[in-house]
Amino acid sequence: MSNWRHKPQTDDELNELVVPVKQIIRWLKTRRGFIIGVGILKGGTGKSTSVLYLALYCALVLNLDVAVVDTDDNSQSISRWYAQHLAMGDTIPFTLIEHPTKGKDAISLKKRLRSLRDQHDVVIVDLGGGDKETFIDLCEQARLLLMPSAPSGWETDRIQATLQTASKAARINQDGLDVYNFFVKCDFTSTLAEEEREAMAVDLSEEDEDFVPPPFLHPYFDISKAPHHIRAWSFIPKRGELEEWGLLVRHAMKGIIEEDEAA
């Protein structure tokens, strides 16, 4: 369930905000190796849940070849989820690549992504909460960075530092990097998300003279606090439960695709 307070009134208004499914499939199939990073420089903000749903949507609904790169040495949530469901005999529609950031098997994320570009339609990177070097590598290689957090200062307090790091790294990204915040775990019976957006803009601009405004997605595409997100640890989400994540990625990629096709 998307944020009903900001719901477009007509199908035409919604279509102005999202790229059509057929168009996004065609575009991604002809430009293999589209890299999406998910995360901010902080742990516990819903990154792995976001990665899971985005990967399943791209694989099951868009029928794309999807790879997920798990860079989180600390929790390895996606890797543990993947191993659990393989042991249960479930069919998992995406490829998992574990990317250790420390130890003898560690290589730079930049090198890892270069080797994956030609192998998959979409590569989704689950970023760890605090490894700055890996984050910088991602911003130099990815085309889209999604920054999920719950609408609470406990989760959003690192957004400004993340934006500044991303903007510096993106300067050498040859394809350009689009960066967006969005809220997860939203209770749409309250106005908490709207209040937190306003508070972030005010607090950050007062504290930082180099303030970069948080680039939020349209609030209709905030992600609900749905029970199936919690159950997704034990049960692979059903196709119908992927729709709000599909709308989010179709919205986030609309400008990228239209700009590329107009060039």
Give an overview in words.
The protein has helices at residues 11-15, 21-30, 47-61, 77-87, 109-116, 132-141, 153-156, 159-169, 192-207, 227-231, 243-262, and strands at 34-38, 66-70, 95-98, 122-126, 144-149, 178-183. With 263 residues, it is an alpha/beta fold. It has one domain: P-loop containing nucleotide triphosphate hydrolases (Rossmann fold, 3-Layer(aba) Sandwich). Helix 3 crosses helix 11, helix 5 packs parallel to helix 6 (132-141) and helix 6 (132-141) packs across helix 8. It is globular, with a radius of gyration of 18 Å. The N and C termini lie far apart (35 Å).
- The overall strand count is 6
SSE succession: HHEHEHEHEHEHHEHHH
**In the CATH hierarchy, what is the architecture at level 2?**
3-Layer(aba) Sandwich
Distance between the termini: 35 Å
Separate helix tally: 11
CATH superfamily: P-loop containing nucleotide triphosphate hydrolases
Low-confidence stretches: none
- How many strands, which pairing sense, and closed or not: the largest β-sheet? 6 strands, parallel
Q: Note the beta-strand portion.
A: 5-15%
- Count of structural domains: 1
The CATH topology turns out to be Rossmann fold
Please list the strands of the largest sheet in the order they lie side by side. Answer: 3-2-4-1-5-6
Cα-atom radius of gyration:
18 Å
Judged by helices, strands and strand pairing, the structural class is alpha/beta
Shape: globular
Q: Give the helix proportion (percent range).
A: 40-55%
Overall mean confidence score, pLDDT: 89
CATH class: Alpha Beta
